[in-house]
Specification:
Blueprint (H helix, E strand, L loop, with lengths): L2 H28 L5 H32 L6 H31 L1
Length: 105
């Protein structure tokens, strides 16, 4: 995998991971029968998995760029991938706090 293809894949999956939670919220707003909490139960794990794929692709792109004569856009890919990871982890923490508060009632 060349560094530019790996970086492109990392940016693609990072953007998908970043937009997964807002897409779940929009789906809950506009689709009948989809509750917000149920939408987030699917959107948050999807964001985490997509972010993990993006981080792996960004890591491979960075290693390919390090072995290449040409530079690459691995830094941008890494930033976008970790942004998706932060969104997924933040959503997971929010759901965990909600679950703990519901359990404590």
């Amino acid at each position: 995998m060349s560094s530019s293809r790996g970086a492109g894949a990392a940016v693609f999956f990072g953007v998908l991971a970043t937009l997964a939670i807002p897409a779940g919220i929009v789906a809950a707003q506009y689709l009948n029968g989809v509750a917000l909490l149920r939408a987030l139960y699917f959107a948050v794990p999807a964001a985490c998995v997509l972010a993990l794929v993006a981080v792996v692709c960004a890591r491979r792109a960075r290693f390919s760029a390090a072995r290449s004569v040409r530079g690459g856009s691995a830094r941008t890919a890494r930033v976008v991938a970790w942004t998706g990871m932060y969104a997924g982890v933040t959503g997971a923490l929010a759901l965990a706090v909600y679950g703990a508060l519901r359990w404590a009632q």
